[in-house]
Every structure is written in C-alpha cells, then in structure tokens.
Amino acid sequence: MTQPVTPGLVVVDKAGGITSHGVVARVRRLAGTRKVGHAGTLDPMATGVLVLGVDRATRLLGHLILTEKAYDATIRLGIATNTDDAEGEVTARASAGHLEEATVRAALAEFVGDIEQVPTAVSAIKVDGKRAYAMVRAGEDVELKARPVTIHELVVHDVRPGELEPDATLDVDISVRCSSGTYIRAIARDLGAALGVGGHLTALRRTAVGPYTLEHAKTLEQLDGDFAVLPIADAARAAFPAYELDAEQAQEVRYGRRLPLEIDALTAVFAPDGEFLALYEPRDGVARPVAVFTG
C-alpha cells in the first residue's frame, strides 16, 4: 500500500552543476509525488540552500519568497562576462592590480541599504513573454529595468590577488544578507563598473532562505538514504509568528472567515491540537485569511 505523502518542506544543500529543476525532479521521485515546487531558483553554478515544498506545502512557498536570503560569494575584479559569472564569455578586461583594499571595501559599502538594482541579463525575468536568459543565449540584446532591493548587510572577508591572473585581478570574498529578488551577480557586475575594471562572480553559496539555513539542509545523496520532510506545521512555525486558536476560532478558519485576532503581521494560525490551518494578515482592523491549508 502506498504511504500518503507528508506535506512539508525539504531543505536541500544543492551541489554545483545541477539545475534547480533537476533537484525538484529528484525530490519528486523520492517523495512519490509530482507536487513539488521550490522557493526561488539557484543557478547551476551556485550551491547551498534550496527550499522545496511537498504536496500542499507548495502553497506556502509563495509567501516564503518574500523573506530575506543570505549568501557567501567571491567576486573577481578585472574581468567582465556576459552572464556576470564565471560561466559566461569574457566581454572586457582591465587590470585591477592597482586597486587598494580600502577602495574596494568603500565601494562595496555603497551597496548597503535600499538600492535600485538592474537584474542580471541572464535572469528568468520575462521580457515580452520571453525569459531574459533565453534571449541572451539567442544573441538578442536585453535591457532590464532597475528595481528596488534591500541589502541588509554586506561583509567583506578578504581582498586578495586573483587566482586567475594575480597581477591583474582581485578576488573579493563577501557575505550578503538581502531581500528576495536581489542578484549577487549584479553586485559583482556593478562593483566592477564602479571601480572601472569590470567584475563577475566566481563562486556563490546560498546560506539561508528566511529561517532555513545550511544547518537544516541535506544533500541529495543524504536524502537518497534518509528522505525526511519538515512537517508543514513546523515549517510554518519557523517562518511566521504563530497564533494558537481555540476550537471555535479554528472552525471559523476552516470556513475561511475573518477573525478579530490581534496580530501585527502575516501570521500562522494553529488549531488546539497543533494543526497548521492558515496564514492570516491584519487588514482593516481584523485578521483576514491569505491562504488556508486545510482540506
């Protein structure tokens, strides 16, 4: 007899070289269901935290996408590429050997806060119904509009001669905590432009998506041997403020009704037995359902 699918999240430590879609396909087989989605892709080159939803927990992912993310990255100054990372073709070179570490650090400090960022051209953003990355690969020129993002924190760990052409390039190790929708490749591109030498990303590892970190993550190889899902109730408690309902309130939630709850933000509400029922938000003096997960 087939075991029922457990709704919840799977936090994967993605390896380099595999696409996010490839990870989803593997988890679909392990979970025994096609109802698997992810909360934001990682490029094939990138590694680290990829949060997947299984069964009705896929509906939770759209709300997780709004949370902040964290990355470790290495920027190479002195070389620009058409993808803003090491997988692209070199488009320009200019020696970065003359740059002082203090100059690089000061330039990166300018990225912290609320900024307008032009996404990298090889993003999944649609232009006239087509993915930007597909247009670039087809040889088309792509111009994307700047959009607001927030860099909460940017820590510079090291500035050193580059592993490639050490006399002409600099490698810069950084950690970034930012809003969803921020492109770390674009930071590398824009840093290189600001310093007049070009820049691209040589390594990227996502260390957190909201409350889910590398400590929660398992590699695909580990999941092959021990497939486990973080139950949807535990996932909701980790990501949102929690509100414990009484039996009458829980029944109202099952009907999708508004409630006179005192909440300040998007909140996960739970039945007396601990079942996760819904996400509610404060609006017009009452709590209104954003998504109901029962049934």
Automatic annotation (TrEMBL):
The answer, when asked if Isomerase is one of the entry's keywords, is yes
Q: Where does the tRNA pseudouridylate synthase B C-terminal domain start and stop, copy by copy?
A: 185-224
Pseudouridine synthase II N-terminal domain spans which residues?
28-184
Domain tRNA pseudouridine synthase II TruB subfamily 2 C-terminal positions:
240-293
Name of the protein: tRNA pseudouridine synthase B
Report the domain of life of the source organism.
Bacteria
For this chain, the family text in UniProt reads: Belongs to the pseudouridine synthase TruB family. Type 1 subfamily.
Q: Which reaction does it catalyse?
A: uridine(55) in tRNA = pseudouridine(55) in tRNA
Locate the active site.
D43 (nucleophile)
Q: Which UniProt keywords apply?
A: Isomerase, tRNA processing
What does the function comment of this entry state?
A: Responsible for synthesis of pseudouridine from uracil-55 in the psi GC loop of transfer RNAs.
Enzyme Commission no: 5.4.99.25
- Top class in the EC scheme: isomerase
